[in-house]
Design goal:
Strand 1, helix 1 (about 15-25) and strand 2 (about 30-40) form a beta-alpha-beta unit. The protein is built from four helices and five strands; from the N terminus they run E-H-E-H-E-E-H-E-H. By secondary structure, it is α/β, with parallel strands linked by helices. It has a five-stranded parallel beta sheet with strand order 3-2-1-4-5, with helices on both faces. It has helices at about 15-25, 50-65, 100-110, 135-140, and strands spanning about 1-5, 30-40, 70-75, 90-95, 120. It has one domain (about 1-125): HUPs (Rossmann fold).
């Protein structure tokens, strides 16, 4: 199965890892996963964003550790659709935050005569405080990458 995911992946946290792991599970033994790495206008307004190179390197390191790297393609994307309107994908794995975009993609795919992708939504991965783990919460020193609460003095 050919699966796709996308994101900024600014700080590779537990939520991102869950999304990545699920995408490779869905792809199966013989499948592949396309990872769209947000850049340009998609990240322009974000605070504390790492360079594309650093984010890609961290992704590759994680994929290598999980033995996923050979089945993955990481490519820079400059809009929320990436290559999903042109290339053939069987499924897209999303979080609740990106579900709407996946639904938009399928509408546009149908308009172009392409088959819709199966949308697989994973739940938010929650931190110790019951709120979703996010890069912004990590940058704001609320939580660690694994979702544990950051102890303040």
């Amino acid at each position: 199965m050919k699966v796709c995911i996308g994101g900024t992946f600014n700080i590779l946290h537990k939520g991102h890892k869950t999304l990545i792991n699920k995408s490779f599970e869905v792809a199966g033994v013989d499948g592949t996963v396309f990872i769209g790495l947000a850049s340009g206008k998609l990240v322009k307004s974000k605070i504390g964003i790492k360079s594309l190179y650093k984010r890609k390197t961290e992704l590759e390191k994680y994929l290598k550790k999980k033995k996923f790297l050979k089945k993955a393609t990481i490519q820079q994307i400059t809009d929320k659709y990436g290559p999903t309107l042109i290339q053939d994908f069987d499924a897209i794995v999303v979080s609740p935050e990106t579900l709407k975009t996946a639904e938009e993609i399928n509408i546009k795919r149908k308009e172009k005569g392409k088959k819709p992708m199966k949308i697989i939504q994973i739940p938010y991965v929650l931190a110790e405080d019951g709120k979703p783990i996010s890069s912004s919460r990590i940058i704001n020193k609320e939580i660690y990458e694994n979702g544990n609460i950051l102890q303040r003095d």
